[in-house]
Amino acid sequence: MRQQINNPEISRKTQAEIKLTTVNSNGCKKKSIKHPAHKWHEWHHIMFDKKIGVLGAVETHLSAAQALEIQDSHLGRHMEIYNSPNLDDPSTRGVAIVLNRELTSTKGVKIHYLIPRRAILAVIPWHGKRTLTALVVYAPAESMDENEAFWDEMTNLWMTIDLPVPNWVGGDTNNVEEPINQLPHRHHSSKPVYCFQNSCKHLLGLLDGWRRVNPNTKAYTYTSTHHSTTHLRINCIYVSPALMKNCSRWTIHNVGKVTDHRMVSVVVSAPGSPYIGCGLYSILLFLLEENFFIKFVIDQGVDKPAL
């Protein structure tokens, strides 16, 4: 909670409600944003169509030059990309935090590049004096040993460095934490699961928000076709207990052919903000002066029997 103390007022007026989303983007398809088939044209559209404030993207396959090209294009006027590429081979792995410039403040964002291509942390000015500390991770899928070593390294970072504690974690864990998260059920090594729970759930004090809201629901974010078809929930959002109280509208949904993973989203409201419902439908006032509309209403009323 110390991260919410003595923060300066955000210079820009932002909404008290923000949608946070994570997805495995499965690459960018084309090397240059000038190509119309480049995936970030679609991600740009999705962010604005779905009103996404913060997008945690993994497996971005973006080099520093490619991210800069996107930022310098017309897309950069609407979104800010903080990219952590794979320096050895930018066409693989990679994580990024993307801010919607229309809904968030990009001034004063603090970025921590924790593990290149695997983990990035951002302290984002949110609303009023409140900040959102977002961590995006892409755990190794090559082997259980690498997955275990990654979570050990993540734990060691917070044990040895004075880092901000995230209240929102998104990404691809490549880890099946519970049997219900996989279909058909299979036995998994307990060591990577233990390391994952030790770093994300116990050390950082985070909750699997979607599972808390849907304790018995079977829903999956990725379908593997290696050897046999397996459905997995490996793309998750974890939140702090304090933030969990202000979360709503947890969803797992498809985003078309742009990726083979499903997107996970949650809407977070600032504590103390007033409840604003969906509103009520109303007739446009000018219609009350249109004779054809008045006649239509009368005819409908005559034709319909009283309830």
UniProtKB/TrEMBL annotation:
GO terms for cellular component: nucleus. It comes from the Eukaryota. Transmembrane segments: none annotated. Its cofactor is Mg(2+). Keywords: Endonuclease, Hydrolase, Magnesium, Metal-binding, Nuclease. The keyword Metal-binding applies. This is Endonuclease/exonuclease/phosphatase. It comes from Mycena rosella (Pink bonnet).
